[in-house]
Amino acid sequence: xxxxxxxxxxxxxxxxxxxxxxxxxxxxxxxxxxxxxxxxxxxxxxxxxxxxxxxxxxxxxxxxxxxxxxxxxxxxxxxxxxxxxxxxxxxxxxxxxxxxxxxxxxxxxxxxxxxxxxxxxxxxxxxxx
Length: 129
Known about the structure:
Rossmann fold, 40% helix
């Protein structure tokens, strides 16, 4: 089973993402950069989702540190601070993608599935009566 690391300090967002992904992926949660590094040292995930604003080291700094350490897993940055400058900073730091909050879970699922080589959920079909 593929592993997803979610680095997010908001417990509500942690729970939403865990419940969404857990049936199909092994989900690991870190509330800050220090916990994330500890998890990654024990075994890199197949994909990582990082929040930008966290206590201590922020998501962009964590991303840069991971890339400097040679961690090559796909990393997507999630943020409530949506701006062109933030998007450029994130991509320049080595992220595979940028997701402004609130994000569409099916879009996030497609990104994760593509990164992991798994199948994305299909949106429910609507039939006319």
